[in-house]
Amino acid sequence: MPASASRRKAGLDDIDPGGKRVLLRVDFNVPLTADGSLRDDGRLVAALPTIHELLGRGASVIIATHLGRPAGRLDAKLSTRPLAVHLEELLGVPVAWVADCVGPAVERKAAALRPGQVLLLENLRFHPGETENDPEFARQLAALADIYVDDAFGSAHRSHASTEGVTHFLPAVAGRLMATEIAHLSAILSDPRRPLLAIVGGSKLSSKLKLVTHLIDRVDAICVGGAMAATFLKAAAREVGSSLVEDDFLDRALEVVRQAAARRVDLQLPVDVVVARSPEAGAEEIRVRPVGEIAHEEMILDMGPATIRHWESLVRRAGTVVWNGPLGLYEKPLFAVGTQQMARAVAASAAVSVTGGGDLQAAICQLNLQDGFTHVSTGGGATMEFLEGRELPGVVALDDAPRIAKPAIR
Fold it and tell me: 0.85 cut: is pTM over it?
C-alpha cells in the first residue's frame, strides 16, 4: 500500500472554512460536444457534496480545474465557461466565471467574494506553468485563497502546480470525494473483506503489468480478461488466431502465472471466447469458440458464455471485488456482453465492490448500474497507480492529520 495511504490526510473536518476563501481543485475534465455543451456531467455531480459543505459552512469557493490538453495555450474550445453555466444549474446558486486563473484581475474578483459565493476560474492548462509545476504560477494560485481543498482525485497522479505546488503555500486538505477515494482504495489494499477477487481487463498487459503483479500479492483470485488475456493464452501455447498479442510480454505473462501459483492465488483465464475475423463483423459472422479451437484468421473480441457463468459464480462467493478495465471490445454492442454481464453480476452481489478506469466507468454508467457498486472511482490513471502501490503526488502533498497550519498567502 502507498505509504501516504497509511497516514490519514487532513480533510474538511480539520478546518474551519467560515469566512475564508477556499481554493477548491476539482477534476471537471469532462467530454464536450461540438457546440461546447457537456456530454457527461458525472464529475461535476461528484464534486457537489464538497462544494455544498464549504458554502454551508460560510466559505467562499474558488473552483479550479483543467479541461482537455491545450498545451499551455489559449483554446476557446476548451474554455471552462460552459462548465460554470452547468454547475450553476446543479448547485442552485450563482456561479461567477473569470477569463483567467491568475493575475490581478482574478485576484480582485476572488477578493470581492462574500461567504456563500462561487467563482470558477478559466482552464488551468492555458498556462504552461500548470503542468510544469512552476512555483511562481503555484504562488499566484495560492494568493487567491486562505485554504486549499483538493477534490480532484482524477488528477492526483500529476505533480502539477494546482495539485502539488500550491500545497507549499496554503493549508492543504482533502475534499469529501478525495477522502472517499483514498478510503475505499486503501481498504482494498490493507483490510479487504475476504475472499478478495480482482477482475482485470483491457487491451495490453504492458499497461496493466504493475497492477496485476501488485494485486497478486493481496488477492485470493484474479480473473484476467479483455484483449490482454490473449497474451496469457499464447504464452501457455494456446492458439489465439489473429488476436492482439504482445509478443514481447509472453515471458512476463508466464512469470505472472508462476507468481500466482507460488502465492496460491487462483488465476482465471477465459475458457471460451467470442471471435470474429474483424471488429467490424456482423452478428452472422461471430462465433463462440472454446479456448484452443480458435481459427488462424479469427480474433478474440469478448468472453464466452461459459467463462461468464464461471466468473459470475466467483463474484457471488467474493467478499470484495476490485475491477479495472473492460472485458471485451465493449464499444461494439456485439462484443460488450461480457463486460455488461459481469457488471450486472457485481452490482447484484453482496460483495464490497470497487471499480475504476474511464472506459469501465462509462460502461457501468451506460447500464445505470453505478448505484450497485460500493464505489465507482473517478480516478482513471490515478486509481490504477494507487492500486499499483505507487505514491500519488497530489495525495502525498496534502497535510497529514492533525496538521500544522501553514501561513495563508495574503
Answer: yes
